[in-house]
Structure formats: C-alpha cells, structure tokens
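To: structure subgroup
Subject: Chain for Friday's discussion

All,

I'm putting the inputs and outputs inline so they're searchable in the archive.
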Amino acid sequence: MIKQNFLYSKLDELDLSMTFYSNQNDSSAKATLIYFHGGGLLYGTRDDLPEIYCELLVENGYNLLTVDYPLAPEVKLPTIVACLKEAIDWFLKNYQTTLGLENPNYFLFGRSAGAFLTYLLSARYPLPEQKGLISFYGYYDLTNPAFSQPSSYYNQFPKIAPLTAQALIQPKPIAEVSINERFSLYLSGRQFGNWLSYLVNSPSEKETFSLTDTELAGLPPAFLAHSSADQDVPVEASRIASNKIPNVTYEEVEKLPHDFDGDITKSEGLEVYQALIVWLDKALSSN
C-alpha cells in the first residue's frame, strides 16, 4: 500500500490536504472511498483510520482518499461543507491525471461527525459518480434533543467550564488537532449542552443542516454501522435512518463504545469492515 499527499485547496493561509491510499501501479481499482474523520467537528485528523482497515480496503480493490476539513468553531458548518465540495470536485477533476485511476466512481465514508458530513453531502451535493454512502456511528439531524441537552454520560467526567474550554479556540482556521489537545472543548460542549453553538451561526441553522425525511428517501445506497451501547451518538440515529433510506444495509454491534472499530483487538470492527467490502462489491455490481 502506498500513501501520497495532495493539496486540494486553501482557506486563507490554511492548506487543505488529502492522503491517497492505493496499491502500487494499479489503476484498475473498483472505486475510491472519500473519507471524512470524526471528532465532533472540533478536533481530529484525516489519517485516523486504523491501518488494518486501510490495507483491507486497498487489498480488495478500493482506494481511500482521506480529507482535511477546517474545524469548528474557528469556522462554521457552511465553510466546512463548502471545503468538502471542493475536495470532491478535486477528485473528479484529478482522478485520471493525478491519481492515475480508470474510473471516477466514489463512495462517501465518514465516522461519527464525519458521517454527519457524509449524509449532508450525499443529500445536498449528489453527483452521478457517487455510488453510495457509508456511515459509521453517524447522525443526520442536529435537532436531536440529545445534542442540545447536558449529556448524562459526559457529566460523569470532571466539569470543564465553557470559558476554560473556549481558551482552546484558535485565532485562525485549523484543519488538524489531536484529541488530547482539544477533547475538553467537545466534552464541555456536551456537558453544558452548548456543543452545537460551535457549529452553527444561529439556532435556526440546526434545522438547515438536518436532513428531512424526503432527503433521506433520496439518498444513494447506504451502509450504516453503529453500536447499541453508543454513549455519544444515540444508536436510534442509525436505526431510524435504516428505516428511511430505501436501499440500506445496517450492521449493529453490541455492548461496545461509540467508536467500536477503534479497538483493533476486538473482532467486531474487522467483521463490519469485511461486511462493508461485500456491500461495496454489491453496490457497484447493481449500479
């Protein structure tokens, strides 16, 4: 497996980059997974997907393109979405010349907050080259009460006052920050129920960035995965979506934390990725 880095855009002075994972000298990949990382939109890094899954996908004919996006609250959701549209455009413009691929087929793939972005772009930026969407423990609805109320799970941890947390906000846009450096901003936001204020410009924008039932019904084929014991994003988000998206495969694991695929010592993560590959092959053959 080889990794190459590319610059796809700039936001002010901030470079927005992507990493392309592929098999050496193999232009005949079946499709490319364009990947958005999680982190509550406040932290994270594009290359957070465990190597074992990257290799599994590449070995089975699926390239991976992992994408930077500017983080909130230095920018808000409209800017994040605009940058990711640029990333998709870059892929479609450069898949042959720069990446050496034979076809522009792609799937949008996100985990947690990245899955939220996957839902949004699949609904609001549909393109014929997109063959499906992949959501791992994602959500599509910012009006979900769980996101605006103090979280009983996060309130088990020592309280972080909003002003203390807000000291972590940078004066300029950033696209990468580790969980260790900035998790407390997300933690505080969930403890006090003000997390969404970091993402949107006004309360009414919560609805603007939530998918309607009509949009869910219009989504491309979808693969959803979630843990029944998710302490961060209620599992109902994926259960409801699996009933409203017409062409859907839903994998639910038991008793594991939110990012159930993060612990590679557990077999469940690998099993879900193997199911994902079966689904990807099927989605392409029926397209």
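Points worth raising on Friday:
The first helix runs from residue 51 to 59.
The beta strands are 2-11, 14-22, 31-36, 62-67, 106-111, 130-136, 222-227, 248-253.

D.
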